[in-house]
Amino acid sequence: MSESALAPSVGRWRIALTGLSLALAAFLLVPAAMILVASLSGGYFLEFPPDGLSLRWYGELFDDLAWRAALWTSIQIAAGGAAIATAMGTAAALGLKRVRRGRGLLRSVFIAPLALPYIVYVLGLYNVFDALSVLGAAWPIMLGQSVLAFPIVFVTVDAMLARIDPRIPDAAASLGAPWSMVVARVELPLVLPAVVASAVFAFSFCFDEVVVALFLSGPETVTYPVKIFSAARDSVSPVVAAASSAVTVLVLLLAALFAATVRHATRRRTLA
Predict the structure, then answer these.
(1) pTM for the complete prediction?
(2) Boundaries of domain holding 13
């Protein structure tokens, strides 16, 4: 078949895929947009379209001590979980590069948390931490969320390591540099943009995670998503929409920062 005959078919497929992509984007974004508009309601009930426009519910959100405490708790726990996941994921990616046998099996083990049902994982964590009498503390939530965020970091750093010319670390090793120096001064600086980007994405994941936090949190460790869940279950106040919109905007900003970091790193590698 000639190229001229294939061109109309390719064009139709391109239009169909573009339309499907736009439909999926609308399916994902329209509910969030509706909540955002509803959070601007001037009335006392959550409704769409809103009864007038006002920022009063955002004022109540940030004036409420309980909401501010939940936000600060989430930031602390997400930062700790992201730090653990970034350290473990980066170390695993750098270490896997030096494994000669069983690399495929180890890679499957490292990404297994992506396929693990959250509820099964959390029930196991609950039993373990309950036996240790540490339920309600912040560090069990950090540890539990870091395991779920670990594959995000590992896959991102591992992908950038695969793009590094293997002759670069080999050249450093041939000049007498020990493996620790090769990792610290050659490989790690080359994958640093991926490490930073994956840390941002891990923080976003941990901040937005609710299943682990819901099962392991206590009165002093109520996270922001758990607070939203509890408030939505108890009432239909527009303050819930304001809280949801605020966290949605935060996650979108972090995702934009992640994309910008990856784009900047790719541009630098291209220019180099």
Answers:
(1) 0.77
(2) 1-38
